[in-house]
From TrEMBL:
Matches recorded under PROSITE patterns: GLYCOSYL_HYDROL_F5 (PS00659)
Name by which UniProt lists this protein: Probable glucan 1,3-beta-glucosidase A isoform X1
Keyword set, alphabetical order: Glycosidase, Hydrolase
CDD domains recorded: beta-trefoil_FSCN-like
Presence of the UniProt keyword Membrane in the record: no
CC annotations in GO: actin cytoskeleton; cytoplasm
Length: 565
């Protein structure tokens, strides 16, 4: 029976059958810490190792050299028309026809204004040219296009001037104008044409549309750089790179028992200081500085290629322009291998390098396994051309994919690691779990998977991302401590180790520094004390854990056998 289940059962019984786990948790916390000093003296914590080195107890430096707007939203505050960045999804409804602009088949055909309800064919992704000029990408990948007076169609795959439109805004109402001057209008026969003459007002007329922003959730490097423009973006990013992570952060990590930093980088770092537009240089200098700080504070570095050219998952942290995934193309893969060669050549012999992660979170829906395995094999060999000792880390595909697929691929012979990312989030399965159920899931699902992978006699196992956060509302500090300690106990068993996501974050429970300083996450003696107490309770009350006391009814939370598929 899982450790935390037995703990809950024991406390619940000892408190007279109270079915309030919050109260039980508080009772545990009040006396657990009273024995901290005695237990720390009597039972020292053992060290674990990987090939003679301490296992990775790491922290990610997320949001630093690869921008993620949810980590630090204020980076985007100064962008004009901030709600219309690259990848924003918009819909247009004619105010006269009360119909939505639509592309039959999602692209490749003429555009009509004849839909009562907006769905994927009525949704366009913005490509931002300036703060007022945009290109509209359809569901199928084509762009809206027009010349003076002709009907609007969606037939062009590479946008240029004829695919660029000027938007005038008045609250939610907009006018769409060609660069040549004509306004786009919805005709009475449900066509979209670019032949409205004159200047329309904001009353109900054929050239006025209601614009709905259906989604605006991409806030990455592309959106920041293209939103500000080069000069202002450079100013914002240089200030961010100098202040967000400093030598003092490395000192803090070292003092708190962290021995490794996982550093996400974007593909454009290989062309620093003058990467292709709109990306901004400077990340290479910052990465060099991180290696120097790591050497001073006796930390190791994992370089994580977080953003590949074309985007490997369509998310902001892979620098996707509009949410699409282009990476599996041969040209992008070749370019990515060049980045791995650049990073290997520059850092392979640096004493602070621990490993290079070839790609972060490729999408299972968009990246075929055979393509990914081929890339990993070639990337592994590139790293080996420069180092026989550096660890080569390969990340599992996110989505519907089993990490065992990488263990069966025979990608490399030595010092190879599979990276798993464990979050009790991002899936409806976790939405209604309470604190106890989340903790049970760690022991009943995560632990068996780690044990299965460790016994596969393949690559080492690395929990490259995890966080002390969940969907539980109004959780207490002791519940966070228990959840974090359960994860630490589970992930300490990973043969390579773990790295917390992330060091700094505006969302406090994602912020490692905040968690440590405010004692929501207990490392070292604090974490070990909780584990020790849990184990002592189980030893003392094992008969009750196995149900030998018929007078006590088990809480109903333990009766569910549902597990994610």
């Amino acid at each position: 029976m899982p450790i935390m289940t037995c703990l809950h059962y024991w406390i619940w019984n000892k408190l007279g059958g109270k079915k309030d786990f919050f109260f039980a948790s508080a009772e545990m916390g009040r006396w657990a810490f009273c024995v901290l000093i005695l237990l720390w003296i009597l039972f020292p914590l053992a060290n674990s190792s990987v090939d003679g080195l301490d296992k990775v107890r790491g922290v990610n430096l997320g949001g630093w050299l690869v921008v993620e707007g949810w980590i630090k939203p204020s980076l985007f505050d100064g962008i004009p028309n901030r709600d219309m960045l690259d990848g924003t999804q918009v819909q247009f409804k004619s105010v006269t026809l009360q119909k939505y602009v639509s592309v039959d088949g999602g692209g490749g055909m003429n555009v009509t204004v004849d839909r009562d309800v907006a769905s994927s064919w009525e949704t366009f992704r913005l490509w931002r040219v300036s703060d007022r000029e945009f290109q509209f990408r359809c569901f199928g990948g084509q762009f809206l296009t027009s010349s003076e007076g002709d009907p609007i169609s969606a037939t062009v795959t590479s946008p240029a001037l004829n695919e660029t439109f000027y938007i005038e805004r008045n609250d939610t109402r907009v006018h769409i104008k060609l660069l040549g001057g004509n306004y786009v209008q919805a005709t009475m026969n449900n066509q979209l044409t670019a032949n409205y003459r004159g200047v329309p007002g904001w009353d109900d007329n054929a050239a006025t549309f209601e614009m709905t922003i259906a989604a605006n959730n991409l806030l990455g490097d592309y959106q920041l750089a293209n939103g500000y423009g080069h000069d202002k973006a450079k100013e914002v990013l240089m200030k961010h790179q100098r202040s967000f992570i400093t030598a003092g952060d490395f000192a803090f990590l070292s003092r708190n028992g962290i021995n490794t930093v996982r550093i996400p980088v974007g593909w454009w770092i290989a062309q620093d200081p003058y990467p292709p537009a709109p990306f901004i240089g400077g990340s290479l200098v910052a990465l060099d500085g991180a290696f120097s700080w790591a050497q001073v504070y006796n930390l190791k570095c994992i370089i994580d290629l977080h953003a590949a050219p074309g985007s490997q998952n369509g998310m902001e942290h892979s620098a996707s322009r509009d949410g699409s995934v282009g990476w599996p193309s041969p040209d992008y893969i070749s370019q990515t291998l060049d980045v791995i060669d650049f990073l290997s050549a520059r850092y392979a012999n640096h004493p602070a390098l621990l490993g290079i992660e070839l790609l972060n979170e490729p999408s299972a829906a968009s990246v075929p396994l055979d393509v990914l395995v081929s890339y990993y094999m070639r990337g592994y060999q590139i790293v080996r051309n420069y180092s026989s000792e550096a660890y080569v880390i390969i990340c599992q595909r996110i989505g519907n994919a089993d990490p065992m697929e990488l263990y069966q691929a025979n990608i490399g012979d030595s010092n190879i690691v599979v990276d798993l990312h464990y979050y009790n989030l991002f899936d409806p399965y976790f939405d209604n779990m309470n604190a106890m159920e989340n903790i049970q899931f760690i022991y009943e699902s995560r632990v068996p998977q780690l044990q299965s992978l460790d016994s596969a006699n393949g690559p080492l196992v690395y929990i490259g991302e995890w966080v002390n956060e969940w969907s539980v509302t109004n959780a207490s500090q002791i519940q966070y401590q228990m959840y974090g300690s359960a994860q630490l106990q589970a992930y300490d068993a990973a043969s390579f180790g773990w790295s917390y996501w992330t060091l700094k974050n505006d969302r406090i429970h994602w912020d490692f520094e905040w968690n440590i300083k405010n004692k929501y996450l207990l490392l070292g003696s604090g974490y070990w004390i909780l584990e020790y107490v849990i184990r002592k309770w189980i030893t003392a009350t094992s008969k009750q854990c196995f149900g030998n006391d018929p007078s006590v009814e088990a809480p109903k939370v333990w009766e569910s056998n549902e597990r994610p598929k």
